[in-house]
Amino acid sequence: GAGGLPPPAACDEGPPAALPPELVLPVPGYRTAAAADSAPAAAMAELSIVNALHLPLVQRKYPNAFVSYTWQLDPQADGRLLGARLREQLGRTDVIYRTTCPAWDHTASAPLPLILEGERRLPYPEAFEAVLLQLYVWHLDSPAAAPDGTLLGSASVRLSPLLSGFSEVDGYFHILPPSAGTDVSGPVEADGASGQIRVKLRPCHASFILETQPIIGKEPAPEADAAGDGEDLVQTGA
């Protein structure tokens, strides 16, 4: 009737079907659907650690070699890496036993690091000039010693050639003997030249690839005379 009770409050109808997006607590390593839709695609790189040549002997024995790798900031660049995890190991190859010329044929995809220069985040491809792929070559005494190893040397791969129109970096890079300032742990065995390592790296985000490649196109054809029908125009390259 007119004097009946009012309808029950919303809180009496049970909990909502879902929390508002701003109240959903993010789980480390995951994003909400709304965040995934609004965030730009991550810049990725495909890398391949192919093989090494002329690795040093370890105590007059052939090494059991593997490689670990990570992103680093180019010492000549002004800026810093964003995110502590970007300084940690991105991955490692398998161990190739008893040879100074191991062939790993290791491939992986890795997100390119975020670079901050002052208060400005460097976009790609501009940020290629500030990024290094740092590789560490290790010797494993025995399978039982994994994952610890003896450092044989390190190599740095600059990404700056990608700014000059190259679609990928592919070549052999010198493996430098470890020094007292090397930011890794483990004993040092190698002394002198430590060989070469072949690495291939290619950005696989389409927009970055297009921006780093020169654009080759035809000049626009001249417009037809306003009084003519355009039949006298000669098209080239057909």
UniProtKB/TrEMBL annotation:
Gene3D superfamilies: C2 domain (2.60.40.150)
Segments forming domain C2: 26-173
PROSITE patterns: C2 (PS50004)
Positions of the UniProt region annotated as Disordered: 219-238
Organism: Alexandrium monilatum
GO CC terms, sorted: centriolar satellite; centriole
Name of the featured protein: C2 domain-containing protein
InterPro entries, per database record: C2_dom (IPR000008), C2_domain_sf (IPR035892)
GO biological process: centriole elongation; cilium assembly; protein localization to centrosome
